[in-house]
Amino acid sequence: xxxxxxxxxxxxxHARDVRSLxxxxxxxxxxxxxxxxxxxxxGKADKGGNVLLAMMSVFALVATFVxxxxxxxxxxAGERERRSLLPLLLNPIERVEVILGKWLAxxxxxxxxxxxxxxxxxxxxxxxxxxxxxxxxxxxxxxxxLVLLASALExxxxxxxxxxxxxxxYLSLLVFAPMGLGMFLVFFPRMTQGxxxxxxxxxxxxxxxxxxxxxxxxxxxxxxxALITVASASVVLVGASRLLHRDEIVYGS
Length: 253
Prior knowledge:
Layout: H1 2-15, H2 18-42, H3 46-66, H4 69-81, H5 85-89, H6 95-127, H7 136-160, H8 164-174, H9 176-187, H10 202-213, H11 219-243, H12 247-251
Helix pairs in contact: 1-6, 2-3, 2-6, 3-6, 3-7, 3-9, 3-10, 4-6, 4-7, 4-8, 6-7, 6-11, 7-8, 7-10, 7-11, 9-10
């Protein structure tokens, strides 16, 4: 598939950008570093442990958005700024293939960022002698689908923006969505009752909190959340591919 060729090229190109990789790794490890500093200040008290675990769920959500942010802002907006988007689209390739290839590349780096984030939390929690929650279900049914949705949203924003600077501004604002919702649900956990568990970000936060608290996760709820999140990502990708048929998007005017 041509989308896989584009994805491979994007991954190889961005893998050579050391500064971008270091920046993404720093953002992914920001949560574990903050939790480490809090653990050094609160000690091993139960109250401090609860705070650390609550912070972990929020930063895990944020990591799904920051891992591929640098790749996303360069993906379409950077191509347009370098005047290389139009020559790419002049090739005999469908617009949806271009979007899928770039989305796969963004998702790859976003997934790597999330894994780095979770690995950092595992080390920090072990160092603080706190129980490490079982995150198999939240990762497979929650965070991985959210990575796909976050990458699609970032690609859509990059498609709208005229240059990298503008994309950086809007993508930075996008990160506040999981951060704000996550913090809100930490202080108001009852808001996740009812059918709220099927909403992206809200459902992932609820699933992470259930695992951290040692409560079980209903298989039906986890499956519904994963399907709805992936379906939302598909809708966003279709919208992004249609934007590439508009002259003002392609030429940046």
